[in-house]
Design goal:
Elements lengths: L7 E7 L5 E7 L47 E5 L13 E2 L1 H14 L4 E9 L5 E9 L8 E6 L6 E5 H7 L3 E7 L2 E7 L4 E4 L5 E4 L2
Parallel strand pairs: 4-9, 5-8
Antiparallel strand pairs: 1-2, 3-7, 5-6, 6-12, 7-8, 9-10, 11-12
């Protein structure tokens, strides 16, 4: 093998068995440092760092804060009322309650069904919720307020004025528990305590 042509220089070594062994060593390249000027006279090599464009994670537009009222789960369909301070008395309808009412209307083939929620004295905490299905023909145009779910199901809840005064700000929900499924009033701001089943409550004195 011609090792000189490949930049390799043969070197002969003697093994412990007495046989000759040829090995090739790689010739290192020569650095002609003596042709360069002294290190003190060399100009430093300027290394340009790649330009980085900072991208802000926030949009350049200013954030606009909406001052409009939050979207409600129900709207007043008939006879809106205000309290003594001039605030609208609103009761919301949860999606579970509205979809359950829609199912009842479909099963009874009666789109005019409403859920009537009434508050009466009694129960273990002084007041109790009473709920029943009623027809639109039995709704009083003067004494009742009708709320309709805002999700397009057509579900409606009706209350008389005394009951609405005690239930304003609350929600009508539909719960599925081991003891049974039922419509329920939740989040009543006027209630200070309630029973375990949620059908009776006490109000602030």
């Amino acid at each position: 093998m011609n090792t000189k042509q490949n930049g390799l220089h043969p070197r002969r070594t003697l093994t412990t068995s007495g046989h000759d062994r040829w090995s090739a060593t790689v010739q290192k390249p020569l650095f002609l440092d003596f042709l360069l000027p002294p290190r003190a006279e060399r100009a430093p090599i300027a290394r340009s760092s790649p330009s980085r464009t900072s991208v802000s994670p926030f949009p350049s537009q200013q954030r606009q804060i909406s001052t409009s009222s939050p979207c409600r789960a129900a709207i007043v369909a008939a006879n809106p009322r205000k309290d003594d301070e001039g605030n609208d008395m609103i009761v919301d309808i949860t999606p579970r309650a509205s979809h359950r009412l829609k199912e009842i209307m479909a099963s009874d083939s009666n789109p005019n069904l409403l859920l009537r929620v009434t508050v009466e004295s009694g129960g273990c905490h002084g007041f109790q919720y009473l709920m029943s299905l009623t027809n639109a023909t039995s709704v009083s145009t003067d004494g009742d307020t009708v709320f309709e779910a805002a999700d397009g199901t057509g579900a409606k809840v009706v209350m008389d004025e005394p009951s609405l005064e005690l239930l304003k700000g609350s929600k009508i929900d539909y719960t599925m528990e081991l003891i049974g499924s039922q419509f329920k009033v939740v989040g009543n701001p006027a209630a200070t305590s309630s029973c375990g089943c949620g059908t009776s409550f006490d109000i602030k004195s």
